[in-house]
Amino acid sequence: MTYTIVTECIACDACRPRCPTEAIARRENLYQIDPYLCNNCLEYYPDPLCVVLCPTLHPVPLEIDPSFKIKRKKCRWSDKENLASPELFSNGKITAIAAARVIWEACNLLAQSSSLPWLTEPDGKVSYSQPFRYGKGKIRFRIAENLEDECPNSLGGDAAWRAIELFNLRAACMHLIYAACATTLERPWEEAFVIDDRQIEAYLRLDERKDLSRHDKLALIKFLARQPCQLLASIRFPQQERLRAFTVEESRLWHLLSIEHRFQEDAFGNKHVIGLRFRIRAGQWAKYFLNPQGAKEKTAFYQSAILPKSLLEKVMSLWQKHQGAARMMLWLLFKLQQEPEEAIAVSTLMKVGYGEEPIAPTNKKRDRRAQRLQTFENDLEVLYERGFKPVFDPATYAPEIQPLWAKLLDIPEDSEADLDFWIDDASKDRRITDPAPRRKWERLMNAYILKFELPTEFARGIAEFEAQKKETATEKAKRKIQPDLTGEAVIAARNNKGWSQRRLAKMMGKSQSWVRDIEHKRFEIKPADRERLREILGL
Q1: What's the CATH fold of domain 482-537?
Q2: Are 36 and 95 in contact (CB under 8 A)?
Q3: Of 121, 222, 273, 397, which sits most exposed with the smallest number of CB within 10 A?
Q4: pLDDT per residue as tens digits for the range 206-265
Q5: CATH code for 3-61?
Q6: What is the pTM of this model?
């Protein structure tokens, strides 16, 4: 019943100092467990502590029972106190998501990791800052020293850079899942949501990964679930309309309150992790930007948007081969909902996809620019194939500097029309297949994309979401205009018309006792019945 550490160890040193038998040793950044000292934490902890502490579940049993197999149905969370949050994507397509600027920037940060301009401050702490509202507001991110403390210290030096290097696009997807779960709560900065490995596996489509064992999937889920919780955020928000300027002091973006491990024992007495459950609470930012009651009272915001399930699936399928396209896709998720009418500069899109260094004015290496240009045009094609269709600005992004694949879209499918197309193209001064013009890079840095036509399910989801918001606003306006329908008002209106309770009940399709109970205020009228009653009584 002893454990060993496999080669995928990330050397975080979480297990070594807390081993009760001092069985874990570090030799040249490699960790080893002494099998003569390890006793499976018997008499110390109910479960092996190194497995519980490891962010990637890499301590595994030294002797494997060849007949052991994780039984999926055995992992059932029986307690009702910490049931998992409601399933997202209830319609199978879209779900609501927190859309505050801090959520957008954190998504961008996790996706770009070390390609962003992180700074080392005078006190040695490493931070990334992003201004907004023309420099009047500012968001600053730092890396938390640990995941346990409510108000942890921030990291600096090599420790901070190691944590930043581990951020990736999959962690950004996990962050979006948290932002969606937070919208299911009334007070997310006080209440916690619970999400288990099965839900995460379904949202990220890991259930379709046949190349990963069950243990590998759990290790990946635990690793990804922790990454968004390493971020600390502080916000300086300028005055906006009636809302005064405010500051959100540095606090966790997401607080990982607990990780519950479910174990299954094999014939050798070794314990294997078969399930994980995470309890998470949103940080103080939610009190200002995801506060439904505060939004009603004009003291806070409730900023939300939609998240298509297909977008998570696309990012998870692209994140290795087309990182630039996946980063742009995540950025466009917020950009196209919050600033839909604003044209997008090509230079901005390149910064999102590849960072600032490759497109900096000081970087004048022609071979590097040519390589980056080809990558960008390939990534634009990937976006087009996934339903994000760019509309080029004819004034700044002229046809001669557009990607070749975009020009070929105009080729007719009919063979005769196709021949005429190429004959006509050959007679022009500049043909489709001609080499790119001189100074194409400089022209691209001043070019714009007017908009992106969205995938069908995304566009339909936005339309439904906006319609729902308008409907809610209309209902609120009606409630303000129309006085409350009291029992006395129903009695007075019925008597004015000379009707009995029985006649009113017949017109409503209800029983006489229902009318009597309404008039005596014995229960609340449903909204649909209230409107019908107003219509019949002329109120």
Answers
A1: 434 Repressor (Amino-terminal Domain) (1.10.260)
A2: no
A3: 121
A4: 988 888 888 889 999 999 999 999 999 999 999 887 788 999 999 999 999 999 998 888
A5: 3.30.70.20
A6: 0.81
